Amino acid sequence: MRLSEIAKEFHGELIGEDAEIVRLARLEDADNGDLSFLSQSRYRELALKSKATAILISREEPLLPKTVIRVDNPYQVYTELLLRFYKPLPEPTGIHPSAIIGDNVKLGNNVAIGPLCCIGENTVIGDDTILVGSVFIGREVEIGSNCKLYPMVVIRDRVKIGNRAVIKDGAVIGSDGFAFLPDASGKYHPVPQLGTVEIGDDVSIGANTCIDRALSGATKIGSGVKLDNLIQVAHNVTIQENTVIAAQTGISGSTKIGKRNKIGGQVGFGGHLKVGDDVTIGAQSGIISNIQNHSVLWGTPAFPHQMMLRIVAFWKKLPEIIKRLEKLEMELLKDKKKNGH
Questions:
Q1: In this model, does residue 341 exceed pLDDT 80?
Q2: pLDDT single digits (tens) 29-60
Q3: Looking at domain 100-303, which of 2.50.20.10, 3.60.20.10, 2.160.10.10, 2.40.50.100 is its CATH number?
Q4: Is the dihedral angle over the CA atoms 74, 77, 80, 85 positive or is it negative?
Q5: Does the pLDDT at position 17 exceed 90?
Q6: Is the pLDDT of residue 314 over 90?
Q7: Domain segments of the chain: what residues?
Q8: C-alpha–C-alpha distance, residues 111 and 120, integer Å
Q9: How far apart are CA 236 and CA 191, in angstroms?
Q10: Which of 32, 74, 216, 275 has its CA 20 to 30 A from that of 12?
């Protein structure tokens, strides 16, 4: 595509020379013939050094000393163009002869079941859903339409999944929650986990993420939730609509997380907590108490973000502060000796 065509289609402004674009690339990888994007000003130095033929920038970003296209959302335009330049491989179709399908399974129209999939009895799968291969689905499971389950996904008995879900490689949904009771001798015995998992529409679940079934009732993942890879969601957790959670986060049992939250990687949540709506939590935070709506937190234990930044700044000054205190103590000691105290 030519830069002028891109600018016209996305209602952008081409500033610089028109040219043919043959590839898309990140700023640091781009070369002649490539189009890249700058979505945050903190990467401006990379943009200045980039060899890209042209760069997508926001309308508020100052011009660069090279050809640019000003658009409303550079990242969004870039991702839409990716689908043009890199055509996806065709999706699987039909039912592979190696698939095992139990009794009374109901398949919607155009369901694709790849090699070595196993589907338990009395399960229902909606229209246009794809099981790529080596997917295990238990008994009495309900899966909506237009879902895609990647290899090695495990969906245990009686789990319910809405429409347009994407569940990536190795995710396990509906395994037993972590619950054991000790007897008088201190030996632990498993507590039966008789609940289920309910997942809304338009949910994305990352590779090797685990969502445990409830003790009773349901572990609930609301519509629009996006979970990264390697996340642990314990029994009876609720995550409400349009919350996004980055990798390696762990959520302990019965914690309730509100709507539209943004949670960084490696965050740890204690059990039975309540997190409000529109909350932002920085990476590696430790959450040990309830959180109100619109909070921005970071740290272990988590503090308001601005306070934590000040604390970190003081940490860096601690060696200097200690030296000054020691000097003051020595001077006070000398004054006491001098005055005969």
A1: no
A2: 999 999 999 999 999 999 999 999 999 999 99
A3: 2.160.10.10
A4: negative
A5: yes
A6: no
A7: 3-85, 100-303
A8: 16
A9: 14
A10: 32
CA end-to-end span of the chain, whole Å? 86
HSE-CB for 43 with a 13 A CA cutoff: 14
Residue 298 CA to residue 306 CA, distance in Å, equals 9
Taking the CA of residue 268 as centre, how many other CA atoms within 13 Å lie in the half-sphere pointing to its CB? 7
Length of the chain: 341
* CATH domain 3-85 topology: 3.40.1390
Written in H, E and C, the secondary structure of the chain is CEHHHHHHHCCCEEECCCCECCEECCCCCCCCCEEEECCCHHHHHHHHHCCCCEEEEECCCCCCCCCEEEECCHHHHHHHHHHHHCCCCCCCCCECCCCEECCCCEECCCCEECCCCEECCCCEECCCCEECCCCEECCCCEECCCCEECCCCEECCCCEECCCCEECCCCEEEECCCCEEECCCCCEEECCCCCEEEECCCCEECCCCEEECCCCCEEEECCCCEECCCCEECCCCEECCCCEECCCCEECCCCEECCCCEECCCCEECCCCEECCCCEECCCCEECCCECCCCEEECCCCEEHHHHHHHHHHHHHHHHHHHHHHHHHHHHHHHHHHCCC
pLDDT of residue 23: 94
In CATH terms, are 3-85 and 100-303 the same topology? no
pLDDT for 340: 67
Q: According to the model, what pLDDT value does residue 265 have?
A: 97
Tokens standing for residue 281: 């939590």
pTM (predicted TM-score): 0.84
Q: What's the confidence (pLDDT) of residue 303? A: 79
Q: Tell me what pLDDT residue 89 has.
A: 87
Q: Is the pLDDT of residue 338 over 80?
A: no
Query: Annotated catalytic sites, by residue?
Result: 235
CA–CA distances in Å: residue 260 to residues 39, 257, 268? 21, 9, 18
